[in-house]
Hints:
The structure is a single chain. Helices cover 35% and strands 23% of the residues. By secondary structure, the chain is an alpha/beta fold. A 7-stranded mixed β-sheet has the order 3-4-2-1-5-6-7, sandwiched between helices. A 7-stranded mixed β-sheet has the order 9-8-11-10-12-13-14, sandwiched between helices. Helix 3 (79-91) runs parallel beside helix 4, helix 5 packs across helix 9 and helix 6 (192-201) packs parallel to helix 7. The radius of gyration is 19 Å and the shape is globular. The relative contact order is 0.12. The mean pLDDT is 93.
Amino acid sequence: MAIFLNENSKVIVQGMTGAEGTKHTKRMLASGTNIVGGVNPRKAGEKVDFDGTVLPVFGTVKEAMEATGANVTVIFVPPAFSKAAVLEAIDAEIELAVVITEGIPVHDTAYFWAHAVATGNKTRIIGPNCPGIISPGKSNAGIIPANIAGSGKIGLVSKSGTLTYQMMHELRDFGFSTAIGIGGDPIIGTTHIDALEAFQADDETVAIVMIGEIGGDAEERAAAYIKENVTKPVVGYVAGFTAPEGKTMGHAGAIVSGSAGTAQAKKEALEAAGVKVGKTPSETAALMREIMQNL
């Protein structure tokens, strides 16, 4: 089983003909993703050969969906044009939009997220500024390396791309149902809670790793949700214990103000909800390893 993305997902790539889009379309195809086309209004009607796989380019997301039955889009569009690209995906009512782009203005993200809500939440947004989502052995929508872990029964949700990769690699002998990088911007689409809810409902996911970081209160809210709703074992890691107060660290959302948003406060909230929290990514992986060995 998997959440949000599986072997039946039909994927299109907005920005497929750009440098990043081209590179990662090749990688997604190589990992078995069923990519059925791309979107670029300036190159509509063209076909692109990706090492023997020839994909059509459509002028709009709606056209691509009508022609191919696509239900997932991966967006590799420069920040200045990302708002329009995501709005187009939402208006076409595609089921899942994975927004890889980094550097999208927060105002733009707020606008397209509000638009998604106002139109009935028919499109799930993952990101922006994220590595995407992978259900190993089934499909890979984004930039997560497909060869670092196989399929299994661990669910992973993470704010950090690189920590997603590290955790997948460290637990590769157990494997993952789905791993989601939700992004570290102040406003994101899919949250820790969304992923936790889906993993809890997935029969094949038996345990969950949740990776957070300093800034905001997403991890505290996730801890409250876990306490009330999640019966599966959860282990956690919070990045940023050594971050100086008041300084933005890496992600735009990772800024600490006073005692709010600190790694220690998040760790305590998670532990109060029954989550085992590691001091390092490797210690967190060891905690999950122990759980999996005893299940």
